[in-house]
Specification:
The protein is an alpha/beta fold. Helices cover 44% and strands 12% of the residues. A seven-stranded mixed beta sheet has the order 2-8-7-6-5-3-4, with helices on both faces. A hairpin with a 7-residue loop joins strand 9 and strand 10. The radius of gyration is 21 Å and the shape is globular. The two termini are 32 Å apart.
Length: 416
Amino acid sequence: MTADEETGEAEQARGGTGAGGTGAGGSGAGDAEAERARRLAAWTAARRKLSDGPVDGTLAGRLARLAEEGAEVYDLDGSPDIYGDGIVARLEERTAAVLGHEAAAFFPTGTMAQQVALRCWAGRTGNPVVALHPVAHPERHERGALGRLSGLGTVHPTTEARPPTAEEVRELEEPFGTLMLELPLRDAGFVLPTWDELVAVAEAARERDAVVHFDGARLWECTTHFGRTLPEIAALADSVYVSFYKSLGGLSGAALAGPADFVAEARAWRHRYGGQVFQQWPAALSALVGLERELPRLPRYTAHATMVAAALREGLAEAGTPWFRIHPAEPHTHQFQVWLPYGADGLTEAGVRQAEEDGTVLFRVWDAPGAPGPPGTAVTEVTVGAPGLRWGPQDVRDALYGFLARVPERGAAGGV
């Protein structure tokens, strides 16, 4: 997927058309929109799902839920924020405390937060080069913004589908001012290094006189894999970006945490980038709800994802699927990839039909992986959330068999 295309996550959110098509039977923009609406309606109405989608439900229902849950974490009789005071300031204080950093600043988007962070570090280090993975978010999903807007350059410690090693960081041929680590590395399969590897990589960057920035959009869900608290993890970095709608279920928004003087500078650049929004209280309120309700549950989701992945592996083998991949084999977080040897559009359609006919959502949008993925395959991302905690191994296998029975290519070959 190029930087000019929608991310797979956005496609999932809006019920997109998988591998760039217009959906089953669709031939134009109107057909594609109708197909997206159909999918969203099916996923929202489904009684059984592994997780709630980011846009499942109606506006009225989501507003009512925010009012109910928000009253448990903040005084709703207070005034809305104005340019980041009030509830937004409260969220910033809470985020800094949760991460163990001196200060934090709220941003309307993670893209803006990271561009500001990397720009600030370039000015402070005197080096405009950022070392990061070639599938990291700024490289793949931001339309070349680092170079176009801030004049920053990038180098890649590795092209392997995993985080870089300490040795790779030490052996980079040219100097860099910032090492950016995406934790977990989403496009490679939500993969993480071990704790010792992460410590070594951070030390290697500092041996090169570079600072360390964590793209922690999903950092919240990393504690189980590392066996460390969020402050212990965040302490390895000079600055950390976190998202409030990924993992925590907020409406939108992000935060940049780090030293107080760094965050103060980031606030100035936030204003210059157009991020000084007049009122952001709905996003801030939903973020506080996420920190209070979802954050403590994430270790349970991660543990349950291990069971779901194992049940899928067993079910696919029992069904005689000619080739499949669960990646990572044991999930590092509550999200992982599933690969199958069928067309993306047919797999997406099979999942929608299962939601419509059985009220079950196992998989949502599938995509053609592109290079270096095997030709003729498709990949999807599985997220295990609160609804998925009610699923046992047999529930997963039963849902899988129902899904496979609806895959057109499999049906032509004899079904399950």
